[in-house]
Amino acid sequence: MDFLIQNILNALQWGSFYALIALGYTLVYGVLRLINFAHGDIFMVGAYIAFGISGVLLGPSIGLSPLWTFVVAVPLTMALTACVGVTLERIAYRPLRRKGAHRLYVVITALMCGFILEYSNLAVLGAERLKFPELIQKSIWHMGDVTITNLKVIVIVAAIAVFVLLNFIVTKTKIGMAMRGISYDKFAIPLMGIPIDFIIVFTFVLGSAFAGLAGLLYAMSYPILEPFMGMLIGWKAFIAAVVGGIGDIKGAFVGGFLLGFIEVGVVAMPGLESTYRDLFAFSILLIILWVKPTGLFGMPQSTKI
Predict the structure, then answer these.
(1) Number of domains in the chain
(2) Which candidate in 53, 116, 264, 292 could, as Cys together with 11 as Cys, close a disulfide (CB 3.0–4.6 Å)?
(3) According to the model, what pLDDT value does residue 71 have?
(4) Is 19 a member of any domain?
(5) What secondary structure does DSSP assign to 71-97, as a single string?
């Protein structure tokens, strides 16, 4: 039983990372019908931004304590990462949207933006891996053979809080209503006096900020940074969003945790090495899509990419 509980906690932690990133994918797709393949690299940028902020705040010129550095770094990282996402939207996506470019070209542009972020990081900071500072002193609680850390609890609680906040914004606020309206008919929304560009920018702000938060929490949990750290986890989060039902917030959240449980469950199975984790995880997710192509919570769409 202790072994089962321990693996459930590990799965909840990994699922939280996937869910935070998948929410950004599904937000942008829900509003623009755009798969922002650069989103995983925005997660990576968020981790590096958090590293830079922590270095400045912990340095001799300011000298904040690690705990206060964490408190200040969270909103700053989310804000600056949101600026990166908005910049991509203004420079790369908006001109194509205004010219009526085919969605395929926008998807290719998103892929190129991801590569630009990766190799710009590589060119500026080099290929050397960086060690993220310890901002929160690790506390370990033992319940029998089950080990729980305060950082693991923070990650899980943060993912749940973000989902609750996002669900409230989308379902209970006027700007959320506008976001849902654009997903239904982006041509009629401007005729109703709603600034479509502002809504799109707000969508990128939310998605990128959540990716930045995920980058910070991931760097604190696994404190080694490298320029390509967002590639694989970004693809996994995208697959989680698709399995949950791309465009559906609840689907992205559930899909992220489902992927986390599958991966940890495969590793925990006796006789299987950790190298089989991705093979089994993707195979199971493929079977789910065979059974329900629209995802767990997705609805059939008349438009295709």
Answers:
(1) 1
(2) 264
(3) 93
(4) yes
(5) HHHHHHHHHHHHHHHHHHIIIIIHHHH
